[in-house]
Design brief:
single chain; alpha/beta; five-stranded mixed β-sheet; 12 helices; 11 strands; about 45% helix; globular
Length: about 325
């Protein structure tokens, strides 16, 4: 290679590196700005931007049970510059229930899990109950069909949590659906809805600690470190309600394997930072970062499990 050719090659490499550094990594999320999941994504995006030396932008596309965000990523170029971050329901639950514009197991490539966590049973502070036992008694004392519960979207774990509780107690309760968790919290605090299942992320922890909401039970298999006094549904005698959830990171189909692996490694490095672990655990989430292969197995297993459950109860789209 001549000196002139070497200089030309170096110039091309530098130009490519500069272009890459200036090209934003776009994260499309199914949560609204300021929502529970959004509160976990943005700190991670800031740290990831510092690690990569390039902009990382968060694009909120809430609504349509996750279809809007997912379709935007499915249609994006598979070059590693666009990622989807969504709750479990947007990939493994809702496609069994609603008309879906793509095949979530085929058109999205699992990159890693952002975090693992489940739902708290929350009531307004004004509800005259002190614990789960009193809450059940209160529910049973209400006129038939008069109890409503809020969800952050139909077909989500927050929705199925209410359905499962109603089935276990033999009660008819009306689901009131919101566009995202932030909207649900706005109506739950003043008592527009009687209760709701929601993650501890975002403003929920502050609302509970500030005395504006009560946390009576946890849907996950183990108590939350941030709320050690809140019993699990299994401890309370309702194991059929138990469900463990996740937030996942996905890339468009066709994204090169080496690119997916690099993204997984970079996100895992960020999630392993002590300050990130502390922040996630404060909101009731265990930071993720599992390998793409392990996460893909989890996604496929959950897709089959939720599909079987939905078929068993005969659930139809609302």
């Amino acid at each position: 290679m001549t000196y002139k050719t070497l200089l030309a090659t170096l110039a091309l490499c530098c130009a490519a590196a500069t272009t890459w550094a200036q090209t934003p990594l776009r994260i499309i999320t199914s949560d609204q700005a300021g929502g529970g999941m959004d509160s976990l994504i943005r700190p991670m995006a800031d740290k990831l931007s510092t690690l990569l030396g390039r902009p990382v932008l968060v694009d909120n596309r809430a609504g349509a049970q996750g279809r809007l965000a997912g379709k935007a990523v499915v249609d994006a170029a598979p070059d590693g510059n666009t990622l989807l971050i969504t709750v479990q329901a947007g990939v493994v639950i809702n496609p069994h229930v609603y008309p879906w514009p793509y095949k979530s197991l085929d058109d999205l490539l699992p990159v890693t899990d952002l975090g693992r966590g489940s739902m708290l049973l929350l009531t307004p502070a004004s509800l005259p109950v002190r614990d789960f036992k009193e809450f059940v008694a209160w529910l049973k004392a209400q006129p038939k069909g008069q109890v409503n519960f809020g969800t952050y979207s139909p077909g989500t774990i927050s929705h199925f949590g209410g359905l499962l509780l109603g089935q276990e107690l033999g009660l008819e309760m009306t689901a009131v659906h919101y566009k995202a968790s932030g909207d649900l919290m706005k109506d739950l605090v003043p008592g527009v809805v009687s209760f709701g299942w929601n993650g501890a992320a975002g403003p929920v922890t502050q609302l509970v600690r500030g005395g504006r909401l009560k946390a009576l039970a946890y849907m996950g298999p183990n108590r939350l470190a941030v709320f050690p006094d809140v019993p699990t549904v299994r401890e309370l005698g309702y194991p059929a309600i138990e469900s463990d959830g996740w937030i996942g990171v996905f890339a468009p189909k066709g994204t090169p394997t080496e690119t997916v692996n690099r993204l997984q490694a970079d996100i895992a490095r960020v999630l392993a930072l002590p300050e990130m672990r502390a922040a996630y655990q404060m909101f009731g989430f265990e930071p993720g970062g599992s390998s793409s292969a392990d996460f893909a197995r989890l996604v496929r297993s959950d897709f089959q499990r939720w599909g079987a459950y939905i078929k068993k109860i005969g659930y139809k789209a609302e």
